[in-house]
Amino acid sequence: MRSRMRRVLLDTRYTLVGFPTAIIAFVLLIAGFCAGLGTAVVWIGVPILAGTLLIARGFADAERGWLADVLDRPPVRPRYKPAPPGSGRFRRLVNPLTSGQSWLDLLHGIFNFPISIISFVFTVVFWMLPILGLTYPIYGYYTSRIPHNVELPELLGIGRGYETNVVFYVTLGVVFLFISPFVIRGAALLRAGLGRALLTGVAELQERIDDLAEGRAAAVSAEANALRKLERDIHDGPQQRLVSLAMELSRAQRQMQKDPEAAQATITSAITATRETLDELRALSRGIAPPILTDRGLAPALAALAGRCTVPVELDVQTVERYQAAVENAIYFVAAENLTNVAKHSRATVCTIQLVRVGDMLVLTIGDDGVGGAHVAKGHGLAGLADRLRAVDGELVVQSPVGGPTLIMAEVPCA
Questions:
Q1: The whole model's pTM is what?
Q2: Residues 130 and 193 in one domain
Q3: Within this chain, do residues 155 and 276 fall inside the same structural domain, yes or no?
Q4: What is the DSSP string of 58-121?
């Protein structure tokens, strides 16, 4: 109830306070635009137009602040094109003319006026109707005694008696009391829709483009880091083992004629090294494209990760659906990297993993009772995970105070 009343008051403030503001903006902008356009041929109108656009920008910024309350979303301010570095005074003066958003601000200031009138009228009427109806028992007592008073109930064929009028007006007031919040909300959204389309639509589109560009850059960075890590792991692991294996086999070949028993021991050692190399290559292949994830999905893949971890893991997977490969890979690698960090650095005694779908989001939560201190600063492993998640429009949240415990949450859209 309190939140609904607050919403009605915010919408009312928006339409009532915005109405005189819209009048002032309309008068100033129409006057400035006409004066600037009429004198543009003699160049006097150019700075007038530029000044008019700056005035429109000021009114637009005020409207964006109000939109944040009406639409329940953070304020969005577009990027106005700055003047080129080293520009002269005249170029800086007329710079607003080169920004498309400035002209949208002007259009909003002009077209907002008639819409503000409609919103204002509906808001005032639907505030007054319930107030007049519910307070009729007070003022109706006196108005009913005025001679020749023609009241609405009489016009509708209802009796002129005071008691009858009280029932009629109070009932009417109650009906409009329930209707008014919806009408007032609609009036506010009517005006807010124009503001959102002209004042924040381009900014939201630009923000989305920036997010996509950041996501692509994050994907490229994550892929490059993964390739470098894979190259380093191959160089430090299987490659060195294969070099050692080749040397062992060469020694066994030389020993075959002179000392068969020593050669047999060398071959046995080489076979053992070969098996270890194969195991390491399998581990590396799981890091590239784990077959269990591809074939069976996230639940078995996470269970396999938990089984290999040296720290006891409590696993709670509440979804068995299959998702897009990019989503499953992102969740899997976040879990794998975090379990590796838990085993190496956390000194934890237990780790918990929960995977659940919440609406259109797939949420992975990993916690441990270790020493904490994990963060997503550049140069740390979690930074690469954050980049990988941004590539699929996901987000990584880390809570890991020094001394622990650590809670890491990954959210990925899965619709």
A1: 0.52
A2: yes
A3: no
A4: HHHHHHHHHHHHHHTS------PPPPPTT--HHHHHTGGGG-HHHHHHHHHHHHHHHHHHHHHH
